[in-house]
Automatic annotation (TrEMBL):
Family annotation (InterPro entries): FAD/NAD-bd_sf (IPR036188), FAD/NAD-binding_dom (IPR023753), NDH-2 (IPR045024), NDH2-like_C (IPR054585)
Catalysed conversion reaction: a quinone + NADH + H(+) = a quinol + NAD(+)
Gene Ontology terms, MF aspect: NADH dehydrogenase (quinone) (non-electrogenic) activity
Keyword list, A-Z: FAD, Flavoprotein, Membrane, NAD, Oxidoreductase, Transit peptide, Transmembrane, Transmembrane helix
Full protein name: NADH:ubiquinone reductase (non-electrogenic)
Alphabetized Gene3D superfamilies for the sequence: 3.50.50.100
Amino acid sequence: MQEHHVVVIGGGFAGLQLVNGLKGAPVRITLIDRRNHHLFQPLLYQVATTLLSTSEIAWPIRSLYRDRPEVTTLLAEVTGIDRQAKTVLLKGGESIGYDTLVLATGATHAYFGHDEWEPVAPGLKTLEDATTIRRRVLLAFEQAEMETDPAVREALLTFVIVGAGPTGVELAGIISELARVTLPPEFRHIDTRTTKVILVEAGPRVLSSFAEDLSAYAQKTLEKLGVEVRLGHAVTACTAEGVTMGDTFVPCRTIVWAAGVQASPAATWLGAPADRAGRVVVDPALRAPGEEDIFVAGDTAMVIWESGKPVPGIAPAAKQQGAYVAKVIRARLAGRPAPAPFRYRHQGSLATIGKSAAIIDFGWLKLRGWLAWWIWGIAHIYFLIGTRSRLAVALSWVWIYMSRQHSARLITQKETMREE
Ligand SMILES: Cc1cc2nc3c(=O)[nH]c(=O)nc-3n(C[C@H](O)[C@H](O)[C@H](O)COP(=O)(O)OP(=O)(O)OC[C@H]3O[C@@H](n4cnc5c(N)ncnc54)[C@H](O)[C@@H]3O)c2cc1C
């Protein structure tokens, strides 16, 4: 008899946890991803802000399963699903049959119907996004050093971050520290300490998913780092000249988009109901509606938490869902009763502000300041894959603290936007 074929789309947190959870099960697994690497997105902002290099936070997916002969890794982009034929359709025309399918294709940033802003206001989701942002930030300082027109120089030294969730706060804090601490001795014609970093948020506070006192602390810490926080300001236009918020125009050459979430098109592939962010509304066993053999996990699934809120789009939630689906598949293959419905266990929320402060909300315990930063740092090192990455990241951080230098300040790839 042919072994049961599980096809997993997406080698992110949910997909990998699922494949790990199926170790030893009587299955053959095909893991498809359009990128050749698994990415530790929580530290992506550190690549964008020159603290870490790309290889410290990403790993070739193929290498993770070198000792699992039943796992086949394919570098391919999925474009659709034929539920009747039980096949996954790939860009290029190929198709792959499945017995069980798991969609774990994640989410990306959303421009609230203004996709035309993306070229001037890149979001942060992939390594390419991170190196694009890094290049733009570093080029802005380089161009300001050569610029003779004071208005253009000021625009070059103005950085606008849209969205004050964890990513926006993290980016703003580090860019401000870069300008105020690391760069000043290296430039001769500009004072990089005059750099403006503006964090724009449509809502009433930064880090709105945290308790109010923690979000107030985060705002105060950002302001101490030199970040200008503008709350209650919705962005109405982004262009190569600057950002408009209602009646206010801020001339700037570097905009980073850290607002909005849009799930992958998994719901469209399945013709399944989706929420406003495009996430597939799954049943309590994380199955697509009406589908016995199709599961959806991670950021691309919408599942209700006990409190009635949707499970948050964070890495621990994606991992728990991946592990749960593995359990369901194992039980099914062994002829055992299905496990109890998926139940999300929230372990806490963490965010950093600059290089020495963080906030942590475990529910039962709230922490802020340097102690929170240490816990944040240790947790993130623990969750990296492999000893080499853990040592490399720990060493980079120690070096940055001792030297006040950022170790990955490289301008790479061609910058087209500014070369016209
Ligand atoms: C900048 C940033 C910072 C974050 N910080 C934190 C944090 O501090 N803490 C935290 O808990 N969470 C954080 N998150 C959220 C966390 O990273 C996500 O919740 C988590 O990655 C979701 O896992 P996933 O497996 O659902 O999707 P992902 O990890 O995004 O994986 C999806 C995979 O699917 C692949 N894929 C997508 N479409 C296709 C296709 N058509 N064909 C083939 N492959 C495809 C992608 O290449 C990707 O590898 C952050 C996210 C971002 C972007």
